[in-house]
Design a protein that fits this description.
By secondary structure, the chain is an alpha+beta fold. It has 10 helices and 24 strands. The strands form 6 sheets. Strands 1, 2, 3, 4, 5, 6 and 7 form a 7-stranded mixed sheet that branches.
């Protein structure tokens, strides 16, 4: 199957990425078990260079014909490929660990269901009239990359995740919490559940701020809009193409000096870390924003070559709003982390005389996010006198991250694992002053 000589005989250079994924997932809707999902999938991505042009093909399955089909598809693709002058990886790394797979196999389905039952009982005792939805899963991923230049890299990861949510009155949105670890959960997050229920009870009434400029507290779950905009700004692709607002800004202050953003691909305690990227380049921790100053860009192989530098190990099969084996490689964050500050959530709220707490934003994809602009519907809560009031409804939020995030009042003292559409990161609460809010 993995005969690298077949690739050498057909192309000037070739890169084969293999991802094997196993997953067991339990989904509960309105308290009751709704669906059990089991997945065991092998995916393949072949990238090639021939006559200084690039080509690619992808496939799923594990039959002996997969490699032949990949080669045939890549041959057709390279005929119409874009110019390509970079070389594929020649690195070697074996980061696979037998114990990692054992963690997946040894945790049985009944243990996942038992943990879900404990969560269910905790909610039942505290708020039995909730319309509660939740899911729990275990996932195992094995990644291998080979190239005709001699690269051979391997790693494997096991992760356990848990998610619960309730619909907000009025429809169209929900409150949720997400947890993930590379080990099975040991305790119920009871303090988080108490806070979650308190916030949910406030959604039963609507409270809207006056239109104007005011402080806005962003929850970690809402900050994906900021990270997506920043990612486009520091992408070497956009720097090279002249579309980034951060061209020639290295070393310049672009945000408040309270803000530090680090890409931590090899972060511990989660399965979302990566030892090497989807091009077989070893990852490393790198400071992107340091005390407000722009410190570095993100490079993959292609744009590193075009800009006469080296890849930073950020060539990932991600786009801004998706990912997958058939997604082209782009310069992307692997696991971004916004460094925590020194204020609790309650302490940040106490600084807001009138403003809003944003739990989610809607419509961000239609904003000019490549330039940092946002014009979105804000979901969350009205804040008065440092206290949460009712839920927001038909409240709009607009601005630009490169001007507005210079006015950071404070940053929360702990980070929370939060989805970022096509990836994930660790973010704290962030309080920003004088944002434009359209309310009453």
């Amino acid at each position: 199957m993995l005969d690298i000589n077949k690739l050498k005989n057909n192309f000037a250079e070739a890169e084969l990425l293999i991802k094997d994924n196993r997953e067991v997932r339990y989904d509960f809707e309105n308290w009751d078990l709704e669906e059990i999902t089991s997945k065991d999938l092998s995916e393949f991505s072949l990238r090639v260079r021939d006559n200084n042009k690039s080509g690619s093909s992808t496939a799923t399955g594990s039959s002996s014909k997969v490699l032949d089909n990949l080669i045939a598809g890549a041959k057709k693709s390279v005929e119409f490929g874009e110019p390509a002058y970079f070389n594929f990886s020649d690195e070697k790394l074996n980061a696979a660990d037998q114990n990692t797979e054992s963690k997946f196999s040894e945790v049985k389905s009944n243990q996942l269901v038992e943990f879900a039952r404990e969560i269910k009982n905790t909610f039942k005792e505290k708020k039995p009239d909730l319309t509660l939805n939740f899911s729990i899963n275990k996932n195992y991923e094995k990644i291998k990359l080979l190239t005709t230049r001699g690269a051979e890299l391997k790693e494997n990861k096991t992760g356990f995740s848990f998610f619960f949510s309730v619909p907000i009155p009025g429809g169209g949105s929900e409150l949720y919490r997400y947890y993930e670890s590379d080990n099975l959960f040991e305790e119920i997050p009871e303090a988080d559940i108490d806070e979650f229920i308190e916030e949910y009870e406030l959604t039963e009434q609507i409270s809207k701020p006056k239109t104007g400029k005011m402080p806005v507290l962003f929850s970690p779950r809402a900050l994906y809009f900021f990270l997506v905009s920043l990612e486009t700004g520091v992408s070497s692709q956009n720097i090279f193409q002249g579309t980034s607002p951060l061209i020639d800004k290295l070393g310049d202050p672009v945000f408040s000096d309270k803000l530090t953003v680090i890409d931590k691909p090899q972060i511990k305690g989660t399965s979302f870390g990566r030892m090497f990227d989807d091009e077989g380049i070893t990852t490393s921790e790198k400071s992107i924003i340091e005390n407000g100053k722009l410190n570095s860009y993100l490079y993959d192989l292609e744009y590193a070559s075009k800009m006469d530098t080296i890849s930073t190990g950020n060539g990932m099969k991600n786009t801004l709003f998706g990912s997958g084996i058939d997604t082209p490689v782009n310069p992307s964050f692997v696991h971004p982390v916004i460094s925590p500050g020194n204020k609790s959530k309650a302490g940040l709220l106490a600084e807001v005389n009138e403003g809003i707490l944003v739990e989610n934003v809607i419509g961000f994809h239609s904003s000019n996010y490549t330039q940092g602009h946002f014009s979105v519907q804000a979901q969350g809560f009205h804040v008065k006198g440092g206290k949460l009031q009712g839920r927001l409804e038909d409240v709009m939020l607009a601005g630009n991250i490169y001007s507005d995030f210079k006015n950071i009042i404070g940053i929360g003292d702990r980070t929370i694992l939060s989805p970022m559409v096509s990836s994930i990161g660790n973010f704290p609460y962030i309080l920003v002053d004088q944002l434009s809010v359209t309310g009453e």
